[in-house]
């Protein structure tokens, strides 16, 4: 059997595709896979490292403001339809799996015209433009949040809520052992990060909170500042004994396992990992994403009792400090929020998605 996967631009689209592929490989070892992405997206680095066959299309998103680049992107999009048609003709997959991002659009669209069997996976509470349009071609769409159901004009039986697949090393751990292994025994640990690239707003907020807790040595902050911000943040953070600044949090499962509270963005994969670990969170959604989907993700966690949401464009540092202090001062609240986070986790998501696909072929 031949299966084509497509999705890219960010890790939020790529990692679920890879997890689903692993689930399929475990159940159907002889399956041949091909991944179609872009040369500029994160998939161009990550996918080849897995050993999977990888091809690219030249396609980018359109800015809201019309510019000379808009015309270039339009012709690239037209060319990507032809490229997708050629790839589908040559590889001739029985199944196409799309996980969103601009590159998935021409591939799934052409596959739909060719009457191929298509499955989509949507990571966010508010679906992306590509998946909303392409859902008309989908045999089934796998959702991560119940809130997504309202945005698809499909029969309910074609939509299945199975969550976001995460790596197997994310899960409940012995927190005290993890703290000991990282030299954090006896500490209340707040883990702050803004993704692999970092986030200036979270970096500034973490510094402000660490300064406010300077007289409480039992509370310790770990900040994944992002490589582009690391040197400046490490210099600023040097004056705080209760703060460790890292370029990137690695290994993430170990640091999450040692943490009592997470301060982070609300990308789909970050939230899936937080839920898998059963951690309470303070979420600062990025305002620089399409359709404000991070805010919608965050509000889904907040409404479930798993997180507090801080609006980057309108927050008071003193108020956030007070909220963090209240959380860290109550084992009961932290435990309750962590339990609510676990309730949002879908164990074995990749395996269940793979089983759904293979059952119908």
Question: How would you describe the overall organization of this protein?
Answer:
With about 350 residues, the chain is an alpha/beta fold. The chain folds into two domains: about 180 residues, Rossmann fold (3-Layer(aba) Sandwich); about 170 residues, 3-Layer(aba) Sandwich (Rossmann fold). It is about 45% helix and about 15% strand. The chain is built from 14 helices and 13 strands. It has a seven-stranded parallel β-sheet with strand order 3-2-1-4-5-6-7, sandwiched between helices. The chain has a six-stranded parallel β-sheet with strand order 10-9-8-11-12-13, with helices on both faces. Helix 1 crosses helix 14, helix 7 crosses helix 12 and helix 10 crosses helix 13. The longest helix has 24 residues. It is globular. About 45% of the residues are buried. The mean pLDDT is about 95.
